[in-house]
## 1
Amino acid sequence: MASHKHLESLIELLSEHRSACRLPGAVKLFVIGLSVLQLFCSFIPSSFAGDILAETAPANAIDVLKFKSAPMVAAPKIGLALGGGGTRGAAHVGVLEVLEKEGIKVDYIAGTSIGSIIGGLYAAGVPLETIRKGVVSGQLMHHFMTVSLPVRVLLAPVLYVPRLLGSRAYDGLYKGNKFRKYLEKTLHSSDKRIENLKVPFAAVSLNLLDGKPYMIRSGDLCYAMQASSAVPSLRKPVEMGDKLFVDGGVSCNLPVKQCRQMGADFVIAVNVDEPFRLATTDTFRKPGSVARRMIKWDLYTIDKTQEELADVVIHPDTEGIILVSTSKKAAMRALSAGEQAARDALPAIKEKLQGRNILQAEK
């Protein structure tokens, strides 16, 4: 769900469904052209991931924080930065379960894309068991993309008919409204205003109009989660006030710096991207393999700068898990990887927390 990943999503999904849906030559050409265009876009420098945000925000929509050094306080606060990654985001649930079991209380949560969805639900007080069921059952991802990508692409000409009749809908294959309603149903009795959440929360998104990243910290939680996960080309942008938002991963896929700006003194970052490992020459004989490798490298480079700002980085092994899948097996694998990575990181987390007088040493 992170922005630089939408080309990877197209490659993966078309590959996954190629046997079930043969695309006409014209449609293939359209998809290939779109993929090439987005591949070039993926090389646009993303070093501005933590730059200063705009200074004003529309009422009841978003609250924008200028990036400053977070002052040290008497009672240091723990922040959790949850990165984007689609289906791989199930790992966030595993991490949260381990932290909760160990009694490590989170004071701030900043999330991008799937990180904003899992983080937002958790910050609203939705039980982890409920979040787990939505992830493992595949319901969350099913509602994220209600119709398979190949089918949606085949229907694209039909969907353009309203434009011929004067419609001025935003660009994108999916609206995302059904997904937002699914999130609203999941929240049910929980407060849906971000400023009223049990845990201070920020959804990171990019404003298409001024090209700047924003931290959505007030207003409707479900709209904020929809905006932060609006993958370019796949999902339509989300209009909030005088801003037009898309997936926050365009500028910041792992919001560590943003989490510090919220007031966190100790930040645990959860990066669910596929690990960037040494590859062999045979890897790149498959169609689409070079594009996927370059996207993986780009994300690795972008997230690395944010990882360096974290006190502890948890990086589950999500190798081979595609971005958009309703597979229960894939979700369980990601969730288990999150649990394992969190358990492996516990000694370092506890040691550093004790060193900062945040966590008392066990007697």
## 2
Amino acid sequence: MKKGTGIQLSGDYDIDISVRRDSGGLIVSGLCIGDTLRQNQAVILAMNKGELKEAPLMGVGISDMLLDNDPLFWRTEIAEQMEMDGQTVERVAIGRESIEITAEYKQR
């Protein structure tokens, strides 16, 4: 499996399950598998440091950005966090209503 491919999450960050059965009623697939780049970015942006037991320094805590006025800090923090996840970051842009991240996983 190539890096960036894995179990998909639903809109509420729960595991996306789509059960398929064969003609005999047996389950032949259930977990949705696909590209995880964007969902991993969303989780890293939303997560605060210390929330992920396996990587306590991982997380941007984007909710803290709401009343902050230092976009350079946040662009740097977002880029660093994505790189910690193994992504090669080309660009991070913070607008009034969105954050755009241009990145991809490094190929092994």
